[in-house]
Backbone:
């Protein structure tokens, strides 16, 4: 499966998720967990990677080109448009061919 989409949209979703109070702090804070003093939303936003670094990470890790076997491309730009039932059916069918 290859997850793809508009990187700018995905980056902004990442930024929003990182400052959400519902996000587990271990995913947000890279220098010390648990934090000695919890950071504010503004402090967390200031710590976020730049868009350029975000893109570099995708390219360097090969997220945009990684492939093993048959590919099912899923555009993650608009999560509400992903037909999860159809996707699961494709995965089941692919698995049954093995």
Residues:
């Amino acid at each position: 499966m290859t997850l793809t989409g508009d990187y700018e949209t995905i980056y902004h979703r990442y930024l929003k998720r990182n400052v959400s109070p519902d996000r587990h702090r271990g995913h947000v804070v890279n220098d010390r967990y648990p934090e000695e003093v919890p950071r504010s939303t503004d402090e967390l936003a200031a710590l976020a990677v730049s868009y350029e670094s975000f893109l570099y990470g995708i390219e360097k890790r090969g997220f945009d080109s990684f492939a093993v076997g048959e590919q099912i491309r899923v555009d993650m730009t608009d999560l509400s448009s992903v037909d999860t039932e159809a996707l699961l059916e494709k995965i089941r069918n692919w698995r049954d061919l093995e």
Summary: The two ends are 16 Å apart (CA to CA). The CA atoms of residues 28 and 73 lie 28 Å apart. The longest strand covers residues 2-4.
